[in-house]
Design a protein that fits this description.
mainly alpha; 86% helix
Length: 140
């Protein structure tokens, strides 16, 4: 029962992202909003892959396929670095080119820090402390 909780929560996170971004995506597809830069599309694709893989990973653990979960987890570490890199690139680009306020850039930097620390600690504790590992992945 407890293992299924994490799968359900991963699916809820994915569903929340879909519901949250669907209106903007529809507006872009219908031409009501301008098409964002390629960088934003790359970020969206990486985050979508991240969310789908989190659901996949929790499903694997629920089905007791720990070995496959661990093999896929290594690719998630690389994907996490890609997501982080894209997030940094977007914030720096917006700060330098779009002139976002420093306070907004600091808020984004805080989010980047939480994601980076969460992923790094989750990777570090993946074998020694599985309870911390899964909580840190969800925090990130």
């Amino acid at each position: 029962m407890k293992v299924r909780f994490w799968f359900v929560m991963a699916c809820v996170f994915l569903l929340a992202a879909i519901i949250g971004f669907a209106p903007n995506s529809m507006d872009i597809l219908t031409g009501e909003q301008p098409n964002p830069p390629l960088l934003i599309h790359a970020h969206a694709a990486a985050m979508t892959a991240w969310m789908v893989l989190i659901c996949t990973q929790t499903a694997l653990i629920s089905a007791r396929h720990q070995a496959l979960h661990q093999r896929i987890g290594i690719s998630l570490a690389g994907l996490g670095l890609l997501v982080l890199g894209l997030m940094v690139w977007i914030v720096v680009k917006d700060y330098l080119e779009a002139g976002i306020q420093p306070s907004i850039a600091l808020i984004q930097a805080k989010r980047l820090g939480v994601f980076a620390v969460g992923i790094a600690l989750a990777y570090h504790w993946r074998r020694q402390n599985p309870e911390a590992h899964k909580r840190l992945i969800f925090l990130a």
